[in-house]
Automatic annotation (TrEMBL):
It comes from Jingyaoa shaoxingensis. InterPro entries: DUF4832 (IPR032267), DUF4874 (IPR032379). Pfam families: DUF4832, DUF4874. Residues 28-186 form the DUF4874 domain. This is DUF4832 domain-containing protein. It comes from the Bacteria. Residues 205-417 form the DUF4832 domain. The lineage of its organism: Bacteria, Bacillati, Bacillota, Clostridia, Lachnospirales.
Length: 431
């Protein structure tokens, strides 16, 4: 930590706080490990019982809703009210929801999904309308209802024509806050034109990969043909797909499941972390595949920083999504009488946040608080990047804090410095 000495006529004294890096798992919104919570659309929930199944420290939940009972008809009022109650429950307990409606939870996609494509479209419209009419915490809509486990494979409705119709039907209901996540980069490209991609417009379509590390192709997520040979809408080679994923996931959330495979590399910390960083992973299932995750818990890292001897599982979990650290603070007085505060913030997580945030400089005296909005675009603070923040303020006898919060609901976002408060204490000013 470096500081600049201040010698001013008013004899203000800056007393800095030490800000060492923490290895704590941060309960920040819309990132991290998640559990899958499975429900039947025709059945209601018991909130008092369900709350005991929530895992402490997790801010995300994958809510999987089985629509199998309605494969031949529209959702009735009972089903819609049940879904509304499920979403309200998770919002009440401050869980950001990844919503995955599906017809199958046993790997029998073709058998369980509707025989009539119009029924799928009807269900999408009904769920879309419910999202528009209900207060909820859904941030990602995962899949387009079809396929085994809702994972967009083993379905009769995966042609380009079907996918476009499903996408066009759902898109208008998602608004500006909800991302649609699809299973593979090839499906992403079917829904996103090459010209749009070349313009850097990634839209609101994201990726979920439920075959991470299961094989060198992530269990079919990648293909074997080159981009030139396959064309824009087909699967490419592993190398080309990872390069593509590295581009599109800078602006959109990416997550899924790590799976035990036979190609090796899953017990190599450098290989695993390289894969997770390239994909800019924001979330992972903490229950599947336990064989892989248990292996990660047995692998200690050999690093030159505070993470030395911590295991791979803890490191990966702590770095899913964004992880902001204040690296440097400098302060000096200007000729105008104001103070110039310069702060260096680094994102050591795998990804940038995909939601808007706001940064505040807070001065707190014994009886008063002053807040200064600070210009900081957290969504543009990519993995591994350092951002320099400069803020001017009038000196006051006070403690000086930095506060980061999610814009839409003002939920606190904690820095990965060794301080547990919602506001990070930088130091104090005294005459």
């Amino acid at each position: 930590m470096s500081w600049k000495n201040m010698k001013v006529k008013q004899k203000w004294e800056w007393v800095p706080e030490e800000l060492p890096e923490s290895t704590e798992e941060l309960e920040n919104p819309a990132r991290g490990w998640l559990e899958i919570y499975t429900f039947q659309a025709e059945n209601g929930i018991a909130p008092l019982e369900l709350r005991w199944s929530l895992r402490m420290g997790e801010t995300l939940a994958l809510v999987l809703i089985n629509l199998k009972a309605y494969r031949e008809r529209a959702l009735d009022d009972i089903a819609l009210e049940n879904i509304r109650s499920m979403l309200s429950f998770f919002m009440q307990y401050q869980k950001d929801v990844i919503l995955r409606p599906t017809y199958d939870t046993e790997g029998k996609g073709r058998e369980r999904e509707p025989d009539k494509f119009d029924t799928v479209l009807t269900h999408i419209r009904q769920i879309g309308e419910l999202l528009q009419q209900t207060e909820h915490s859904v941030c990602i809509f995962q899949g387009l209802l079809v396929g085994s486990w809702g994972e967009m494979h083993d379905s009769r409705y995966l042609s380009e024509q079907h996918l476009r119709k499903l996408y066009d039907t759902l898109e208008s209901y998602l608004g500006s806050e909800i991302y649609l996540a699809v299973r593979t980069p090839a499906i992403w490209r079917i829904l996103t034109g090459e010209e749009q991609f070349q313009r850097g417009d990634m839209g609101k379509t994201a990726i979920f990969d439920d075959g991470i590390l299961g094989s060198m192709t992530h269990l079919g997520t990648f293909g074997t043909m080159t981009r030139d040979a396959a064309g824009w809408k087909a699967a490419w080679t592993r190398k080309e797909e990872l390069e593509f994923l590295e581009q599109i996931t800078k602006d959109t959330p990416c997550g899924g499941e790590a799976v035990l495979g036979t190609d090796g590399g899953q017990d190599n910390a450098d290989f695993v972390l390289s894969e997770l960083k390239i994909m800019h992973l924001t979330y992972l299932n903490c229950a599947h595949d336990r064989r892989v995750l248990d292996d990660w818990k047995s692998i200690n890292l050999k690093t030159e920083d505070v993470w030395s001897e911590h295991n791979l599982y803890d490191y990966a979990g702590s770095h899913l999504g964004y992880r902001f650290i204040v690296r440097k603070v400098e302060i000096k007085k200007c000729l105008s009488g104001k103070f110039r505060l310069e702060i260096e913030i680094e994102n050591t997580g795998f990804a940038a946040p995909f939601q808007e945030m706001e940064l505040l400089l807070v001065l707190q005296s014994e009886d008063k608080v002053w807040e200064y909005p600070v210009e900081f675009d957290a969504k543009r603070c990519c993995s591994g990047e350092k951002n320099k923040i400069i803020q001017y303020f009038c000196p006051r006898e006070s403690q000086v804090f930095l506060k980061l919060r999610r814009k839409k609901d003002r939920r606190p976002v904690r820095f990965a410095n060794r301080k547990k408060a919602d506001c990070l204490l930088l130091g104090s000013l005294h005459k």
